[in-house]
Amino acid sequence: VTDLPASYDAMVLEVAGELPVRTERPMPQIGPDDVLVRVGASSMNYHDVVNLLGLIKGPLPRVPMSDGAGEVVAVGEGVANISPGDRVMGAFYPSWHSGRPTPENKREVPGDACDGWLQQYVRVPASSVVTAPSHLSDEQAATLPCAATTAWSSLEVGKVTGGDVVVTLGTGGVSLFAMQLARARGATVIATTSSDAKIATARAAGAGHVINYREQPEWWREVRRISPSGADLVIDLGGEQTLAGSIAATRMDGTVAVSGVLSGFGAASIPVAQVMTRNIRLVGVTVGSVDDHRALSAAVAEAGIVPHISHSFSWEDLGEAMRVMQAGEHVGKIAVTIG
Ligand SMILES: NC(=O)c1ccc[n+]([C@@H]2O[C@H](COP(=O)([O-])OP(=O)(O)OC[C@H]3O[C@@H](n4cnc5c(N)ncnc54)[C@H](OP(=O)(O)O)[C@@H]3O)[C@@H](O)[C@H]2O)c1
Fold first, then answer.
1. Residues lining ligand 1, CB < 6 A?
2. Distance, CA 126 to ligand 1 centroid (Å)?
3. What's the pLDDT tens digit per position in 314-328?
4. How far is the CA of 165 from the centre of ligand 1 (A)?
5. Residue 1, pLDDT score
6. Cα Rg for the chain, rounded, in angstroms?
7. For residue 174, which atom of ligand 1 is closest to its CA?
8. How far apart are CA 191 and CA 269, in angstroms?
9. Cα dist. 296→10, 15, 37, 91, 178 in Å?
10. Taken in order 74, 77, 78, 80, is the CA torsion positive or negative?
11. CA 138: distance to chain centroid?
């Protein structure tokens, strides 16, 4: 490709806990199995906030942000299935191609262990990119890799199908996608939120019922009132403070996807006897493989799902994006556009 610039800009973390600094870098050479992507957008996850706060140990300097989407501008000579002009997303676990997770295939997360997507160009193995749904912009597609794949994997561990009852907690990125994807499977969604102002958005995303968990701290009782035998799947995103409630909301032989730590990642006190006597499965979920991401992307395309983005920031305004996420002002996703 001849029209590529000799250099490009990246946002680089130099000191743990400080905001990244705009830095000029030489354009990378691609290997035979690589693709070069001109990045249009990234998106912010709770995970990225933890990383940007300096709480994830990784090499410095490094480019943060696990999510990204853009246009392929060059491919290595051994790449057969991707062409310049294709629009792709990066995978959260580029080395976990398919099958079961292992310590090895989960070791590398862009932004943590190696450079992430907050840069104008990214060189990645062709095996790690996923074709973006054609109805989505880069900004929208960049919200899928972490949050939407996690929502998808959580529904998969619960084997959710038409007529099932799914409970989601809060109205963040993972939960909004879980509502949209569960509705597309024909499930009934019961959502929770701390804010009446967010109820309409949850309903539009697919929630048939919304419970305010501030007004009803024992929200699982309300789940049981709506669905007396309990939910087939609860996607627990609270962790420490919510796991016991999620178990109480789950039906016999149902599943709790242990997918988040919003209220703390320490020890949760759980009703062990209930888990045992009601044959409940507690399944840890970490995003998913590249194949899971592909399946999610196909489902988004098939159902015509459009990610709910409540805020969009330039990559120069990353600090403000972090503030909004930490304050919980957003609903669904926060997009970050690359300048
Ligand atoms: N396992 C994985 O693979 C994976 C992948 C992605 C994310 N995660 C984890 O999943 C969690 C959610 O991630 P996200 O990116 O969706 O976060 P997010 O967009 O920041 O979600 C924040 C929202 O969650 C709700 N919330 C906060 N505390 C809550 C609580 N104690 N109980 C119920 N809801 C609560 C609030 O919604 P309301 O204002 O409506 O109450 C808040 O606005 C995080 O812990 C993240 O680390 C895990």
1. 45-47, 146-147, 150, 169-175, 192-195, 198, 213, 237-238, 241-242, 259-263, 285-287, 325, 328
2. 31
3. 999 999 999 999 999
4. 20
5. 56
6. 20
7. 16
8. 23
9. 29, 35, 21, 12, 11
10. positive
11. 15
Which string of DSSP letters, residue by residue, matches 54-103? T-S---SSB---S--EEEEEEE-TT--S--TT-EEEE-SSTT--SSS--T
Q: What percent of the chain has pLDDT over 90?
A: 98
Cβ proximity of 315 and 338 under 8 Å: yes
Read off the tokens for 90. 């990066």
DSSP string for 117-170: S-BSEEEEEGGGEEEPPTTS-HHHHTTIIIIIHHHHHHHHHTT--TT-EEEEES
Whole-model pTM?
A: 0.98
Mean pLDDT of 223-239: 98
The pLDDT of residue 35: 98
Cα–Cα distance, 67 to 307 (Å, whole number): 14
Interval 2-50: pLDDT, tens:
589 999 999 999 999 999 999 999 999 999 999 999 999 999 999 999 9
Contact 210, 200 (CB under 8 A): no
Q: Token pair 């968990």 is at which residue?
A: 213
Q: What is the pLDDT of residue 339?
A: 87
- Residue 207 CA: distances (Å) to CA of 69, 239, 294: 28, 21, 25
Residues 6+ apart with CB under 8 A from 208: 188, 189, 190
How far apart, in Å, do the first and last CA atoms of the chain sit? 21
Rounded to an integer, what distance in angstroms lies between the CA atom of residue 94 and that of residue 106? 8
- How far is the C-alpha of 117 from the C-alpha of 237, rounded, in Å? 25
- The owner of tokens 């104008």 is 120
For 216, the enclosing helix (H) or strand (E) is: none
287, pLDDT greater than 90: yes
Amino acid at site 137? S
Q: CA-to-CA distance for 172 and 246, rounded, in angstroms? A: 17
Give the model confidence (pLDDT) of 70-110 as tens digits. 999 999 999 999 999 999 999 999 999 999 999 999 999 99
